[in-house]
Amino acid sequence: xxxxxxxxxxxxxxxxxxxxxxxxxxxxxxxxxxxxxxxxxxxxxxxxxxxxxxxxxxxxxxxxxxxxxxxxxxxxxxxxxxxxxxxxxxxxxxxxxxxxxxxxxxxxxxxxxxxxxxxxxxxxxxxxxxxxxxxxxxxxxxxxxxxxxxxxxxxxxxxxxxxxxxxxxxxxxxxxxxxxxxxxxxxxxxxxxxxxxxxxxxxxxxxxxxxxxxxxxxxxxxxxxxxxxxxxxxxxxxxxxxxxxxxxxxxxxxxxxxxxxxxxxxxxxxxxxxxxxxxxxxxxxxxxxxxxxxxxxxxxxxxxxxxxxxxxxxxxxxxxxxxxxxxxxxxxxxxxxxxxxxxxxxxxxxxxxxxxxxxxxxxxxxxxxxxxxxxxxxxxxxxxxxxxxxxxxxxxxxxxxxxxxxxxxxxxxxxxxxxxxxxxxxxxxxxxxxxxxxxxxxxxxxxxxxxxxxxxxxxxxxxxxxxxxxxxxxxxxxxxxxxxxxxxxxxxxxxxxxxxxxxxxxxxxxxxxxxxxxxxxxxxxxxxxxxxxxxxxxxxxxxxxxxxxxxxxxxxxxxxxxxxxxxxxxxxxxxxxxxxxxxxxxxxxxxxxxxxxxxxxxxxxxxxxxxxxxxxxxxxxxxxxxxxxxxxxxxxxxxxxxxxxxxxxxxxxxxxxxxxxxxxxxxxxxxxxxxxxxxxxxxxxxxxxxxxxxxxxxxxxxxxxxxxxxxxxxxxxxxxxxxxxxxxxxxxxxxxxxxxxxxxxxxxxxxxxxxxxxxxxxxxxxxxxxxxxxxxxxxxxxxxxxxxxxxxxxxxxxxxxxxxxxxxxxxxxxxxxxxxxxxxxxxxxxxxxxxxxxxxxxxxxxxxxxxxxxxxxxxxxxxxxxxxxxxxxxxxxxxxxxxxxxxxxxxxxx
Length: 894
Known about the structure:
single chain, five-stranded parallel sheet
């Protein structure tokens, strides 16, 4: 295609370059490419007769370009529709001018939605411009004088005595009378390239004054009131977005307010990719009060420039990162590609190198344990619940059945005993269960698209919960008549009463989630039929609800029952009676549940046999102790050799001695002494050695693949399968694990589905990978801490434990909670990288502990575009001096 020479000349003119001059660029430059599909040479002839940021009329331009006034006016109006020039009616006359590339021409061209959709090279050129020109500006702008400027969230600087009016969003809204709103141009551009980050883009950028008039007139935006503008600002802040303004009109002046995210904003791309934070920063930086900080991580995940990370505040014999200091920045170093962070949208770090709190790290859902412990200590139970539910919608359930990995990792355990974290969580959730009006999360959006969740267990319910918060119409299809999956059918009531499960599921009903029970998807209705009904994506979380076989002689005899099916029948209220001697094969938590259920349905004696020795048993120690208290005998290091059968019914089991369970690589590879055998009598044998997944016809006709162990194949981060609209999670993806693992997977599945059903979104860009690691506990200096006894939950004493299906464990009293929360060491704290912080204040809105604030570090005001050059020249000269000085210093340091 022939080059449009006049269009190319105009593109160079906007950049201040004349034909034949140094730096005159060609047709491969993004500045030409954005114009090429929609701007003609005839239009360019008119544009070449105008000057940047200088208002003019068709009457004035016409004689300069040799065209009639009518034709000139026609071309200028067309250019205003395209987005190359502004148009305002001033004193009854249409007045035109063009702005810089960014902020200016490029955003306006992208905000012509039909145009951007028809010509994808327009949004791509917008993106490429930042990549091509970002490095050139790195280190050249003094703080606060860049083309865009961060304006702090106003509540973040409320107490700052040195704040200036030009740093207040309210000033810009109160001083204008005309407002419009449009979609975010940056997120629109990313979306068109399939690189969206999932952040809200609709109705996010506010135009003021002349810009609002232009946006309304050309259909780029819709008119709004000042009150609506303030509501948009509020909604943006609630959704984790920060504010920037075009910074070209002089101090305290602008024509727009952008609500930005760090993962798609092209101005923040310079900060994140090239470490060019001076180009956009406000006068403020974040400061953490470590005494108040509880390392909840809310500030970290919301920081648009990854300037905040989790660290520790306990003393250590090894160096720890308590402040991020950069010896090299664009201010004092030549900044080439070797220093860029091109993958900044996928390689965010949540934790400093020396690590952070073990409790948050160990939790599969990475709940802010330290945070809700502190809130509970202050009696702020509702806020504690809200913090928990950011990662786990079912704290009352998990407070009763969680494996307590956080407690196993708790630093307090190195002094006396781990903190009773789960009991505190249970108490917090119990307060909500007692409330007349329970906590219902506020919906962030109203997207309305239909999503199908197949399986009503913890993974599926978690996915439904988080999708519902985003306003999706979620339907959960459950094969059984009861909801809850293994929570309801696989865990005995004496560990998890069904009223608790139902109460937490009722929250989803109040949120608008629809449930269809007794529906076997694949048999009663197919995935294709659901697609035809308008469902846009599917989350498969059917669990692992059938028992695994031993594949030994006699296994099919009468009286040999899969343990998981036995528990399910008991939970469904079937009339189950086991008389005589019961042998349970297995050593995990499910096997313990099976054995304890057996004592409650008539067994004279219950003996457990497992391969592992006592220390290796996969069951939790607490579960083992409760089984022993109920006079269940545990026989370690025995494996079943065959089941002895007479007249088709089991009468006993032959076991062989297990000498080792794992090989030298810690892989399951049991070895036996085939000569050491023993036979035990049995009237019933309950097998609990693992669970299988039964897919039925669910996947029939799909491209979804299964692993050799029958789990579903899916991406380990996004949970997307080979069928793009099908995602998976929970036991059907990982194999049998704990409920908290499934709950964590459900939230990640919801994030992926949200991105999948929205056009142009990436499943990975800007997404938190939750890559946590704990600090080195071996190097901690814990001398001087007093021993404080761990609080213990009381048990009901009016019921016979062996006969009752009631949960005998009571909840902590409020006094116990206060005593137990005092034992928390408060291991972690947020660490600030002051150079990377742009002073947006988003962190302060998320902190519930008044632990992070903005402090004024700079005193820069914006300057008009026409006065920008001297400021840049001065900065460039100073920078060169610093670079030379640093090199000299480094030489002498060697």
